[in-house]
Each structure stands twice: as C-alpha cells, then as structure tokens.
Amino acid sequence: MKIIHPVLTDGQWRPARNSIGSFRAVNPATGEELADFYPISCLADIEDALQAAQYAVPGLIKTPPEILADFLDLFAERILAHHDDLVETAHLETALPKEPRLRLTELPRTTDQLRQAAAAVRNRSWCRATIDTKTNIRSKYAPLGGPVAVFGPNNFPFAFNAAAGGDFAAAIAAGNPVLAKAHPNHPATSRLFAEIALECLKKCRLPLAAIQLIYHLRPEDGLKLVSHPLLGATAFTGSRSAGLSLKEAADKAGKPIYIETSSVNPIFLLPGALSERADQIAVELFNSCSMSAGQFCTKPGLVVFLRDENGERFLAMIKKYFAQPQPGFLVSRTVLEGIKTALKAMVDHGAEIVVGGTEQEGPGFRFANTLLRVSGDVFLRHSEEFEREAFGTVSLCVLAKNEEQALEIAAALEGSLTGSIYSETQGNDDALYARLEPILRLKVGRLLNDKMPTGVAVVPAMVHGGPYPAAGHPGFTSIGIPASLLRFASLRCYDNVRQDRLPPELRDKNPTGKMWRLIDGEWTQKDI
Amino acid sequence: MKIIHPVLTDGQWRPARNSIGSFRAVNPATGEELADFYPISCLADIEDALQAAQYAVPGLIKTPPEILADFLDLFAERILAHHDDLVETAHLETALPKEPRLRLTELPRTTDQLRQAAAAVRNRSWCRATIDTKTNIRSKYAPLGGPVAVFGPNNFPFAFNAAAGGDFAAAIAAGNPVLAKAHPNHPATSRLFAEIALECLKKCRLPLAAIQLIYHLRPEDGLKLVSHPLLGATAFTGSRSAGLSLKEAADKAGKPIYIETSSVNPIFLLPGALSERADQIAVELFNSCSMSAGQFCTKPGLVVFLRDENGERFLAMIKKYFAQPQPGFLVSRTVLEGIKTALKAMVDHGAEIVVGGTEQEGPGFRFANTLLRVSGDVFLRHSEEFEREAFGTVSLCVLAKNEEQALEIAAALEGSLTGSIYSETQGNDDALYARLEPILRLKVGRLLNDKMPTGVAVVPAMVHGGPYPAAGHPGFTSIGIPASLLRFASLRCYDNVRQDRLPPELRDKNPTGKMWRLIDGEWTQKDI
Predict the structure, then answer these.
(1) Is the residue at B458 inside a domain?
(2) pLDDT > 70: percent of chain B
(3) B14 located within any domain
(4) Which member of A474, A480, A491 has the closest CB to residue B475?
(5) Model confidence at A109: pLDDT above 90
(6) Which helix (H) or strand (E) holds A44?
(7) Is A47 an active-site residue?
(8) Nearest chain A residue to B474, by CA
(9) CB B497 to CB A449 under 8 A?
(10) CB distance B176 to B148 below 8 Å
C-alpha cells in the first residue's frame, strides 16, 4: 500500500488534507525515485497551518529570550546527535558528497548558524532598542505578528533547509513562527529536521505551532500562501522565475518577501594580476566554479579579462582544469536542464564552448565541466543573455578588447550577490581598479579583492544580498547574524507607555546588563 | 502672456520639455486660482533628470560627509533667512495658519530635521559599520546608486516638502540625489525651497543634479518614474490609491518604495479612564482632531469606548466641542470631496452623524467639524468601510457593547500609524489593558498611553510607519533620524578588500574617533 507521509501542523503529524497528489524524491546519482511518498499540499493545509500559527504568535512574543535561545541551542545539539541519519538521507536525496561537503562543512555550518542565532537572542542587541529619555519615546524591532513562510532551495539541504537553515534560524530568533516549505528534492531530510525541531519545541515548552512543515505546493497555492492575510513574511531562495512570481503576489498583498534568486558573480581579472599570478588564479577559479559541482549561488559565472596574450594563456590554463576531472552529480534533472537552456542561449547569441557542453552518460545527473568564451563586443550586444545563471561547473569568459570595454562590461551588468576584482599586488593595477570599483561596487552586495566568492562566512558583517534582481531589496542580507533577523521584524514604538507595560528591552533597567541600546543617541550597555 | 515656470534639471532652471499642459495652484481660503503657471512634466523631463542624477551619484558618494553635512546645515540656515517668503507663500497655497502652524511649528521642525540629518551625516554611526577582524569582512549601509524620487504630500508644505522635508533630508543624508516631485497644491513653496537648495549646492560645490524639481506628473508618468531603471528608490506620502498604484509599479521593477498613505489612528478609551477624567480626555481628543483642521496623518479617526452611561456622557461632551468653533480651511477641494465620500460610505453603512456633516458656505474650502457614532455590532459588520481616512476634523466613535466587543474591534482593524490606549491611573483598567495591548500592538507602528497621536516628535526613537496598509513595509520609519536614512541605503560588504581601498568608515582607524561601529560583535568607538 502506498503510504504518503503526513505534514506537520500545530504540533501533530497528520495526513495532508485534500492533498492534490503525491511525489517522490529522486536519487540524483541514479536518476531513480526513492521509496517514500510525500503529499502535495493544497490550500487547506496552508490555512490550517496559518490558523495554528496565529496562536503561536502571542506565545512566542511572551516567551523569554532565554527559552527561545535554549531551543535554538538544543536544536543544534540534537541535529548533531542525528548527524549520521541526516547525512545519509541528504546524500541520498541530493548526491552531494558526504565528506567533506555534507558532514564536515554544511552540517557544522547549520548548527553554527542556529547557535549564533541563539546567542543573538540571548544578547538581545539585535532588536536595536532606541530610547529617548526626554520624550519617553522608545522603539525596537519586534516579531512581525504572523508566521514566516520559508521556501528552502535545492542546493543546501542543511544550511538553507526550510526547517533548520539560515532563514529558519533568523525568523525564529526574531520571534516568529515558521511555516517551512521544504524543497521537494529533499523531503526526507526536511522531515528529519522538523521531527527534531518538534521534539525540541516540546522540551522547551514552546508553542508547538512555532514550526510547521509542508513539502510541496502547486505554484498557484504558493502565491496564495505568500499573499495570505495571516502571513507575516516570506523568505524564498530558488529560481528567478518562481521567486519573481511569488514576489509579485506578496508585494501586491503588502507582505514583505525576501527573495534570493540568481546571480552570475562576475570576476574581473586585471592585467597586472594575470601577468603576476595567472597560475594561482586559475586554480582558485576552477575550485570555486567546481565546488559542489558548481551549485552555489555565489559560483563565478562570468570571468572578465583582456583579450591579449596573457588573457589567451590564462584561458588555455583554465581550459585544462575544466577538462580534467569527472564532474560531480547535480542535485536534480531540473538543474541539468537549466544548464542546457542557459548554454543554448549563450551559444545562440555568439558564445563559443571552449570545453564541455555535453550531458554525461548516466546513471544520474551529470554535465561536463563547461567553459565558454565570448568577445566583449558580442557580450555587450546581448548582455542579458549572457547573464543567465547556470548551476553547475559552467563559466563564461568575456574577453574585453581593452580596459575601456572591461569598464563597459561592468556597467552593463545586472545586480549580483558578489563581484570580485583580482589586481596585482605591487600597485600596477591600481589606476584601473580605481575606475572599475565605483562601477562594480553598485552592482553587487559583496565586493571581493583577490578572492573567489564561494565559501560564504557566517559572520556579522557578511552580506548575502545585493541589488535587484540578485535580491528583492538591497538593504537586507540573508546571511550574517544578527542583521539577517531584521528581515523578519517590525519597528514598534512606545510613546509615553508606563514602565511596567514596556517590553523588558525598553525599560529603564538594561535587562541583561550587557544588551547594547541606543539611548539619547549613544550606544550603551547602561541602565537609564 | 502666459509664463510657465521652469523645472530644475541638472542645476538649471529650464522650460519643461514637451510639457503636456500647465496648472495653477489654488488659494484654499478663496477657492481662486493663483497667478503663476507651472508645467505638468512628461517623460522627457523625468529622463533628463534621471540622466543628470546618474552623474551626481558618484559625486555624492565621493563627497566627504563633512561637506554634505555643511550643505544640510546651510540649507537650514538659508531657509530661516527666507522664512517670511516661505510662510507667506505656503499660507497662500495651503491656507494653513501662518501662526503658530507655519512659522512657529512647521518651519522650525523642517530646519531641525535638516540639522538632525546633518548631525547624523557628521556622526556617521547611521551607516552601521560592521567589521569582523578575523575574516576581514566589513560592511555598512551606503547610498543606493540612483536618485530617490520624493513625492511630497498636500498637508505639510514644509516638513514633508519634496524639496526640503523629512524624506528629502533622509535621502540626501544617506548620500543620494533627490528628484523632488512637488505636491501640485503648493508649487511656489516647493520652488522656493529648490531655489534655496540650489544656491546652497553651489556654495558647497556639490553636484548640482543632487537636487532636481518637477511639479506635476500624469499618473502614468508617475508609474514610469518609480519603475525607471535609473531610479534608486521612491518615498511617497499621499493618498492610498495613488500610493498603492505607484507601489505596484515600483515593486514590479524591483525598486524600493516607501509609501505612507492612510491611517485611522484608533483611540481606545478604557472605562476607568472615562470615569476618572472624561473632561480632560475630551479636550485632548478634540484638540488632536481639529489641529490644522484635522489634516494630519496621525489624526484620531476612530475612537472606541463602551456604550454605557459614561460613554454616552463622554460623547455628549465631545459633541459640544465639535459643535462650537468654525472649522479651519482645508488645503484643497480634493480634501473636501474626500470627506464627503468617506462620510457617505460611513453613513450608508450605518453610522450616524452626531454633529456636522455639511460643507461650509464659501469662500474657500471648509467642512463642518463632524462627529459620527456607530455601534460595535455595525462596525464589525463592515469594518473596512469605517476605516476610511477622512482628512478634516472628522472622527467616528465606535460604541462597543462590552469589553469583549472592544477587543474584537481592535482585532478587526487594519494597520495604522498609531494607536492610543487611555487607562485609569490607579490600575483599575490594567486587566483590560493587558488583554487589549497584545492585539492593538500588532496593528500599529506607534502605541501610545494616555496621549493623543498628533504632534510627532522628531527623535531617534520615533516610528512613523507601521503595518500595511499604513506603510508599505513594517521595518522602516519615515520620521526619526538616523533610522529614516536606512530606507535609502544598500547594504554593501567588502570582503578581503585592501585597507586603502575601503571607505573611511570601514578602515581600521575610526574616521571621527567618535563614530559607533560594531566590531567583532561589540559596539565601540575605538580603532581596530
């Protein structure tokens, strides 16, 4: 008998209501469907979850920060206790290598994120308590008043998982319930996280509807979710087309939505850097492009350098790297098809394939490492066609005819998460850097020097965001705690409110003795 | 000969290009058109201004904060030097009283805002420099990379003027050029500000396209402006219908937009407060409703209390206040028609007019002070119809049959800028307060105790914003410096960037010795 996994609603695992069908995940290393069936939820599941979350909202607002922080820490601890299960399951569903990727990199990053979120909750400074003593006006960031829908992406089954990743941690830490919409590529991994989370909610006596899980939605129901009156906000990481249509629906309903969709992450290699250390840069570039089979939002998709002797030599060098190894598995057939579509568009518009360009014979989903080249002239004619994100070890080299053209290329770019400039160490590229930087700076959220953009450190100063369309709003980041919490917060002001009615963070006495507050224009840890 | 005033583009006063017509402002005290003609700009003016602003963008980014601050201070000073002219002109165009309103309240507030913005620029802490020394990742808020379109409202010719008000000050202080779209009710006032601003830009040697001015746009051209690829962001204060259609266009183009449209600002009078000090509350309420003829975004439009003896007595009391004086002038015929439309809808749905309800005989635009009443039952049946903002001394009393119903009314409300709760001073309302507060708290940006919401203090903790539809995003405020600057800023991260290439705020040495920075998780004024 076909058993369909239940969804998690209001602390109960129960069958999806009027489910409109089911699906199975696929093992990307074999291309075969896995055994378990998961439901495609319809509006009834969404509404049940949103109704339940309504009751969790005041519960979470009243929860002392210490308890919320304990929950996040406990969740991290319990995830580690289940790490074998998680790694096995995620490997089966994504074909990402167990080591180092899943076990040694992504799982520790995930638990670290939860712990950083716990620390931010305990510290309380994230809410930016601002107090004017003269007028007795006080304000701070506070929970939204409705749950956050988190749509997890296909490429990070742990660190961006809808039920355990960065958006999840930020939304919970800011005091909001989460309605997790798993990525249908890895339902079992998501289910494991939700099971562990539920156990921890119970232990910490938090509202059980603080974390709920559904697995899959028809696109039209996704639109209904993100625009629902009971929803607080949405975090979406995934494809540009899905992200933009969700954004349109949410915007229209006045619901905040943070999308992180596609990014080509341009790399500019200045002439001095190439003549100084082409070998080293080639290694860095190939590693950054091929890490996790190129399935990172920060993978360098576009490399710009001059079409001179050094440039051609560099291209030949990276060609060798791209040609060598077997490519890794892609997480899904969709990713593989996405590469084909992007390549076809680039080739149709005048790019040449230098190496690769073909699907690998089965089993599983693999595509040859692919390097393309195009002249600056051709690029500038159809720049939008060459800025298509292709997950996978795929990169386009743009050979500019001179420095002016390299600057024009920078000026033509869309918004990206990151942009890197490699320059010579002795100052020989400084004049060109000074002209390029002001142009590229406005196009990217994170500007790097002499460094590839993959490997996103989870530190307070990190910005994983950027100008549209890399992100929906340039003033937020999805990575970097505590800043990432601000996406899921409302500014709330108290004017002439009596001391005992204020939230503890805004009372005269500093609630922890250590929380940073902006009192009469000065950051301080003192009481009033 | 009919002379049409020029627009301000790229530092030049020049005739509007292909203007699609002209308009004249109206003196609201007489209903007659004033002498001067102003152009209705078309897309050509918008594009000229946006192109010119492109060159001002890098210029402003490079401008040392001290110079930008000097400009804002000088602008404040020069506005004061021209105060007679400004007050006379604004009085003619808006019929707002010269004293105290224009001369003693609004003009000082406007120059104070500019000076606070100057202080924020000098202080630099607004940009929230965040530095992780271990990873050498550094980030801060920075200008958007495109100009900010500021649409000024009809009710504050100074403090929200597109070319001198709060949004203007915040956008410039954050380092962005401003394209001011004057409110067509007061073009001459806006022109005066832009003339003074241009003179100050020249004195401070700032890019002259940093401030440009147009007077009027067809709605379809407004949509093109807010969604234009060269635009940075939009700030709009005005009607809900215009605000929402601009928001839709801007959202679709991925351009940040901050709208502040309508708000009913509910006042809850708890039973103990009414039995303790009904007289005093009645005076406060009437003053708050009638100040500036009720044309404040924070005017109390909805007053909720119990339908008992005290409640009826209170209603009789405020009825007397509303009945007494002559109403002030409204700023336009549109405002007057807006009152009629709102009243008709409320009466059609079952509200009764207690006093007022009629247009006053001319000359000029006046509407009788109007008080309405409706039962809680009827209110709850059509709450959206009773939450129509009506500029003017118009307020609706909702008489709840019991405490439960008062809570239901709070739960039914849309988002508002403010919400006030009056409670008894000896604790007799505390139980009800504790039930009401969590509901009302989520509906408003600013929650007040025992205080009316008009009279918005410009202090760092102020929040002038709130849940949709009071504002477009609950995490921002349009009043309160430095927080209001964050609307016009992008988060920009520097990863492994060499010291001398970093903006001064992110270098090891604190650029002012006093700027607050978040270094390795601690707020500090120290160097690294």
Answers:
(1) no
(2) 100
(3) yes
(4) A491
(5) yes
(6) helix A43-62
(7) no
(8) A490
(9) yes
(10) yes
pLDDT at position A1 over 80: no
B443 close to B236: Cβ distance less than 8 angstroms: no
pLDDT higher than 90, residue B65: yes
Question: How far is the C-alpha of A292 from the C-alpha of A95, rounded, in Å?
Answer: 10
Distance CA B55, CA B208 (A): 10
Which residues in A lie closer than 8 A to residue B57 (C-beta atoms)? 442
The yes-or-no verdict on residue B19 having pLDDT over 80 is no
As a three-state string, the secondary structure of A86-109 is HHHHHHHHHCCCHHHHHHHHHHHH
Mutation site, A442, A444, A488, A496, interface B, largest B CB count within 10 A: A442
Residue A189 pLDDT: 98
For residue A203, the Cα-to-chain-centroid distance in whole angstroms is 29
Nearest chain A alpha carbon to B133: A461
Q: Would you call B61 and A437 a contact, using CB atoms and an 8 Å cutoff?
A: no
Residues B92 and B232 in one domain: yes
Assign residue B379 the CATH number of its domain. 3.40.309.10
Instruction: Answer whether A230 touches B (CB < 8 Å).
Output: no
- Beta-carbon pairs below 8 A across chains A and B: 192
pLDDT digits (tens, 9 = 90+) for B376-398: 999 999 999 999 888 999 999 99
For residue B526, tell me if it sits in a domain. no
Please give the pLDDT value at position B20: 86
CB pair distance less than 8 Å for B445 and A494: no
Give CA separation, B441 vs A46, A240, B305, B444, in Å. Answer: 25, 36, 18, 6
CB B386 within 8 A of CB B399: no
Considering the domain boundaries, does residue A503 fall inside one? no
Mark yes or no for CB contact A451/B495 under 8 Å. yes
Chain B contact set for A446 (CB, 8 A): 139, 492-495
Say if residue B234 is in the same domain as residue B342.
no
Q: What is the CATH number of the domain that holds B167?
A: 3.40.605.10
- Residues belonging to chain B: 528
Nearest to A135 among B137, B442, B457 (CB): B457
Contact B460 A497 (CB under 8 A): no
Which one of A93, A260, A276, A389 is the catalytic residue?
A: A260
Mutation target among A267, A454, A495 for the B interface, most CBs of B within 10 A: A495
In this complex, is the C-beta atom of B55 within 8 Å of any C-beta atom belonging to chain A? no
DSSP string, A52-90: HHHHHHHHHHHS-HHHHHHHHHHHHHHHHHTHHHHHHHH
- Interchain proximity B475–A490, CB inside 8 Å: yes
- Residues A455-489: pLDDT tens digits? 889 999 999 999 999 999 999 999 999 999 999 99
Q: List the one residue out of B189, B21, B12, B4 whose CA is nearest residue B89.
A: B189
Q: CB-based contact (8 Å) between B469 and chain A?
A: yes
> Pick from B449, B469, B501: which residue ends a domain?
B449
How far apart are the C-alpha atoms of A11 and A17, rounded to whole Å? 16
Residue A314 has pLDDT above 80, yes or no: yes
Does this model's pTM top 0.95?
yes
The tally of domains found in chain B comes to: 2
Segment B220-229 mean pLDDT: 98
Is B260 designated active site? yes
Domain that holds residue B401: 266-449
Region B173-195 average pLDDT: 98
Chain segment B353-380, per-residue pLDDT in tens: 999 999 998 899 999 999 999 999 999 9
Tell me if chain B has a CB within 8 Å of the CB of A258.
no
CB contact under 8 A, B461 and A498: no
Is B446 within 8 Å of A495 when comparing Cβ atoms?
yes
A247, A254, A494 member nearest B468 (Cβ): A254
> Rounded to whole angstroms, how far apart are CA atoms A521 and B480?
11
pLDDT digits (tens, 9 = 90+) for A249-304: 999 999 999 999 889 999 999 999 999 999 999 999 999 999 999 999 999 999 99
